[in-house]
Amino acid sequence: MSDQMVLVTGAAGGRQGKTGRHVTAMLLERGIRVRAFVHRIDDRSEHLRALGAEVIEGDFLDILSVQRAVRDVSSIYFAYPVQDGLLDATAIIAIAAHDAGITRLINLVMLRSAPDAPTPRMRQNYLSEQVFNWAAIGAAHARATVFYENLRALVTTSLAAQGTIRLPWGSDKTVVPLVAARGRGTCRCWPSDKF
Amino acid sequence: MAAGATYPLIGAVYTLKDIIETFGRVLGKDVRYQEVSDDEWWSETLARGVNQHAVEHLSQLWRSFRAASLRPDFAGFEVTDTIEKLGGAKPKTLEEFVREEQSALTAEPRRRPV
């Protein structure tokens, strides 16, 4: 479908996995139209425009701006930064997407997404999955573990300064599952024909 | 992809020892692991500007990784074939990632306000 358009949230890319930015680039390369949802117009959003995205400024927590953003799109890529507000954003996106007749939403969540998951964010992820399922918007949930890019951000300073990796990870034998955000990893899983 | 379906995404599973060795080998320098307490890590990470919600999430995640690895019945984490199936290629390894990021990881640290 050449006339389909995907709304990509978190498209500018923040300090975490920047998956919205990578998904935007990947879809545009494949000839899929992208509406990039950004918090503010700046150099990062100009970069998205230069790539060919339609840029729309808005806020996940403002339902009016989300309703404008979902107009005439068929699918949504939803990745909420690891910060407060996920459940408000979930409710707003679910309602706006349902009302707009969205048929596919890719929801980026954490590896463990369950009522008894070990962190508050993971438990919120579980709730957001359920809300999206009820909204009947074709939600599929990508449960990604910690990104290599997150690990890099955590170790860069001490690695460069002292050649050390400072973490509370316990013994040598502690096991950590990881995945790439960019490249052959998380973002690669959502090519155009999956939207 | 079915509606309501979930896709676990794990590219690879490493021990802490593997991770330290990989950074050292690829960057060609002596990389040492320095254990810090949960409280120290929490305050250092907040001081670097990471938001409270993310610090709390990560801190509890690190606890859960430590605890899981200590359990005698710990079965490990399963590397799934999701990435290969949906993305059409084997997932990137940590070694490849560190190689790609080599220049950024060995750059002089930027001064940060104290």
Would you mind describing this structure in some detail?
The mean pLDDT of chain A is 92. In chain A, strand 4 (75-78), helix 4 and strand 5 (104-110) form a beta-alpha-beta unit. Chain A has a single domain (5-145, 183-194), classed as Rossmann fold. Chain A is 37% helix and 22% strand. In chain A, helix 3 (63-70) crosses helix 4 and helix 4 runs parallel beside helix 5 (120-134). Chain A is an alpha/beta fold and 195 residues long. Chain A has helices spanning 19-29, 43-51, 63-70, 86-100, 120-134, 148-162; strands spanning 5-8, 33-38, 54-57, 75-78, 104-110, 139-144, 146-147, 164-167, 175-179. Chain A starts with a strand and ends in a 16-residue tail after the last strand. Chain B has 114 residues and is mostly helical. Chain B has a domain at 16-73 and 92-106. Chain B is built from six helices and three strands, in the order E-E-H-E-H-H-H-H-H. In chain B, helix 1 runs parallel beside helix 5 (94-100) and helix 2 (38-47) runs antiparallel to helix 3 (52-70). The longest helix of chain B is centred in the middle third of the chain and has 19 residues, at 52-70. Chain B starts with 5 loop residues before the first strand and ends in an 8-residue tail after the last helix. The mean pLDDT of chain B is 90. At the A-B interface, helix 5, strand 6, helix 6, strand 8 and strand 9 of A face strand 1, strand 2, helix 1, strand 3 and helix 2 of B.
Task: Indicate the topology.
The complex is a heterodimer of chains A (195) and B (114).
Chain A: E1 5-8, H1 19-29, E2 33-38, H2 43-51, E3 54-57, H3 63-70, E4 75-78, H4 86-100, E5 104-110, H5 120-134, E6 139-144, E7 146-147, H6 148-162, E8 164-167, E9 175-179
Parallel strand pairs in A: 1-2, 1-4, 2-3, 4-5, 5-6, 7-9
Chain B: E1 6-9, E2 12-15, H1 16-27, E3 32-35, H2 38-47, H3 52-70, H4 82-87, H5 94-100, H6 102-106
Helix pairs in contact in B: 1-5, 2-3
